[in-house]
Write a structure and sequence with these properties.
The chain is α+β, with helices and mostly antiparallel strands and about 240 residues long. It is built from eight helices and five strands, in the order H-H-H-H-H-H-E-E-H-E-H-E-E. Strands 1-2-5-3-4 form a five-stranded mixed β-sheet. Helix 7 packs across helix 8. The radius of gyration is 24 Å and the shape is elongated. The N and C termini lie far apart (about 65 Å).
């Protein structure tokens, strides 16, 4: 009886072993395939796995220098492949960020907008009624604001991204005092974002620019006094 019980307990072990075998064979196939590729592709692949974001945007590596290679057609094809890979990586990064923030796509007014740009990603945090980043008229973070920045910090630190922060306000905001208006508020909010990201493990060296624009740069096709102009823009790109 004890043998039957023992046999029944280990009856599924072969499935685990088989899954490991299939995984190993797939890994072997990928290694053999990569090793058979052009030397430039090998270098690009190696750089990608070391640092995905930086490798795809590293123009100093000489991987796609058409003048030096003597084969314009081949270089053009390789350049297109890297551009496509870069775009795919940025899309995956944007999708990952959206999932991390758990923002419902069906919301009429999205509190977070993740955009793919020529330099990387732009994350715009809007001051929505139900998802305000800051407490009204101040540079004090809400619970939601802290939650967003904590998740964003993890991603920035993981991929070694450099950070540009811009603070914006809507026109017509009442100043809190004679020496504290939209300019001071937008700059303070941008700096609070910087300090919070550092608190959650982002390196101080990762920040390239922290700026406050007050109400001088309203969103396209939006009235200057629209509440939607009250926002924080965080641009992320590869460190060079």
């Amino acid at each position: 009886m004890s043998k039957k019980k023992g046999g029944g307990h280990h009856g599924g072990a072969w499935k685990v072993a088989y899954a490991d075998f299939v995984t190993a064979m797939m890994a072997l196939f990928m290694v053999l395939w990569i090793c058979s590729q052009d030397k430039k592709i090998l270098l690009a692949t190696s750089k990608y796995f070391k640092q995905p974001f930086r490798a795809l945007d590293d123009r100093s590596a000489g991987i796609m220098q058409g003048k030096e290679s003597g084969s314009m057609g081949k270089d053009s094809s390789s350049r297109d492949s890297v551009t496509a890979a870069n775009l795919a990586f940025l899309k995956a990064l944007a999708s990952e960020l959206n999932k991390m923030l758990n923002v419902q796509a069906a919301l009429e007014e999205k509190p977070v907008d993740v955009q793919i740009t020529s330099d990387g990603l732009r994350v715009i945090l809007y001051e929505r009624t139900k998802h305000a980043v800051f407490k009204a008229g101040s540079a004090e973070l809400t619970e939601w604001g802290s939650y967003i920045l904590q998740n964003l910090a993890w991603l920035i630190d993981r991929d070694g991204l450099k950070v540009f922060i811009e603070g914006h306000t809507a026109a017509g905001l009442e100043p809190r005092g004679p020496d504290y208006g939209p300019w001071e508020l937008s700059i303070d909010r941008a700096n609070v974002v910087r300090r919070t990201l550092i608190k959650y493990a982002v390196s101080e060296k990762g920040f390239e620019r922290v700026t406050g624009y007050a109400d001088s740069q309203p969103l396209p096709n939006k009235p200057a006094d629209s509440h939607e102009n009250e926002r924080i823009s965080i641009s992320l790109s590869a460190r060079r």
